[in-house]
Amino acid sequence: MAIKIILTTIFLALMVVVGVYSRKHSESVEGFVLGGRNVGPWLTAFAYGTSYFSAVVFIGYAGQFGWKYGLSASWIGIGNAVIGSLLAWLILGRRTKLMTQHIGSRTMPDFFGTRFSSEKLRIAASIIAFVFLIPYTAGVYKGISTLFEMSFHIRYEYCVVLMAALTAVYVILGGYKATAVNDFIQGIIMLFGISAVIVAVLHLKGGLVDATHQLAAIEGVKGVKESAGVFASWFGPDPWGLLGVVILTSLGTWGLPQMVGKFYSITDESAIRRGTVISTVFALLVAGGCYFLGGFARLFPPKEVGGKLLFDSIIPSMLNSLPNALIALVVLLVLSASMSTLASLVLTSSSTLTLDIIYRDKVSGAGEVPTGQIDDQVVAKIERRKVVVMRVLILFFIALSLLIALNPPTFIAQLMGISWGALAGAFLAPFVLGLYSKRITAFSVWACFAWGVGVTIINMLVGNWLNPIDCGAIAMLGGFVVVPVASLLSPHLEQKKVDEIFKCYE
Question: Most buried of the four, 35, 89, 103, 233, by CB within 10 Å?
């Protein structure tokens, strides 16, 4: 216990120190939200990876999907690395950086509003982002607090409140620069942590070969497949269900505001090329490691309450028999993954509401002082005021997600499925196609917003007729049909404006 407390205290103190140090870079909006658009490839790549993988993956997804699919769950980690990182950087990185800088966009809703010449789109996107980032944040709180409860024997409610307070402190102090530096430190811990945990857990079962043989000896479960060895097979008992998870967790990142925002801040095109490699390797090691570990879930049965299996208890049960020093490392691993994701989520939400709704028409002082009387001091004052508003909204967002986390409605995986399904279902297709095609219309963006959010909400109202994971995958892929069809049936934007926007690629 002493080792756990000492290492955790040092880690948390370091996060706060970085926040204090980064405060000087967070006085302006550009500095607070994007780090001055001057963040290097290593910091950006690690920020992308650590925002991607949190306690939702390590505690929630790895355990639940490892139990359901066995070793074939490793394909989820591979998909995260190839689709969620490599292809995301190759397809979105350069174009996102160039276009958002060219049109002066600092958030994803701002991109929709400027790219498609619609203030109403900007406001709608802001509301969608704010509302559906909350369940994801609650899922992260729940995952990290579950582990803390196991490790330190502190009540779940106290853990949630503690994590909320710590996240608020270092994000409010240092903004994006603090999160990027902390993400790099946290990423290093995650790489070492997941490697050590895999080796230690497999050692408990006699090593990789023996553990695999034990897994292969388990009979298939009722309603899945009545045969031995299915959980140690290449594609598991449910290949189509596995594919849905791969799509949701991999392609979904392309449409999440907190993930795409990393491309806004990177320095230049050469940094994007280096960041692509770094991010892909990071994802392969961390996500691949998490899901590979989760693949042995059936060797560590979860707790059962009221006849229902508590999937979120699987990974903690794996760790119960580990030495205290290694459990301390695991605590730091999950802390690292979760605090980086929380920081990214709350920063994205607060900046979206501030810049896209509250202060959208006051970028250069317009609306605050008479025309012709705007000087540098006035602009600086307004910039500082925006940062203050963002800091207040960070507290508001954390409080809302905290309320959900204290009484979560379902498992971690389902919380994330609802959040990612709605956000990526609404944003993914119009964002990607908007970067590449001049023929995408504002009406098609509205149609995709309605599609992504509508499918998610209707599925919730009818009692999850579709699993939230499968529903999210359908919402994302369906957007690539909705947007082109709606664009063909609606008037195009003024060609001159569109051509001016696309000049950034010349």
Answer: 35
Q: What is the DSSP string of 396-434?
A: HHHHHHHHHHHS-SS-HHHHHHHHHHHHHHHHHHHHHHH
The backbone torsions φ and ψ at residue 262, rounded to the nearest 5 degrees and listed phi first, read: -65, -30
Q: What is the DSSP string of 195-233?
A: HHHHHHHHHHTTSHHHHHHHHHTSBPPTTT--SBTGGGS
CB 297 within 8 A of CB 67: yes
163 token code pair: 């994590």
- The pTM of the full predicted model, rounded to 2 decimals, is 0.83
User: Which residues are 219's β-sheet partners?
Assistant: 228
Name the band, by pLDDT with cuts 50, 70 and 90, for residue 412. Answer: low
CB atoms within 10 A of CB 233: 17
Average pLDDT of the chain to the nearest whole number: 82
Identify the H or E element spanning 256.
none
- CA 33 to each of CA 131, 134, 180, 236: distance values in angstroms, whole numbers, following the listed order: 19, 19, 11, 42
Phi, psi of 310 (to 5 degrees): -95, 90
Q: Which residue matches tokens 């404006």?
A: 497
Task: Give the residue from 8, 477, 83 showing the smallest Cα distance to 287.
Answer: 83
Burial letters 328-349, b for 16+ CB under 10 A, else e? bbbbbbbbbbbbbbbbbbbbbb
DSSP-derived pairing of the beta strands 308-310 and 303-305: antiparallel
Could you tell me the domains of the chain? 2-15+39-362+378-408 (1.20.1730.10)
Report yes or no: 76 and 307 within 8 Å, Cβ to Cβ. Answer: no
d(CA 88, CA 340): 20
CA distance 397 to 435: 29
DSSP 302: P
Beta-carbon contacts of residue 419 (< 8 Å; ≥ 6 apart): 132, 133, 134, 135, 136, 139
Residue 460: Cβ within 10 Å count: 16
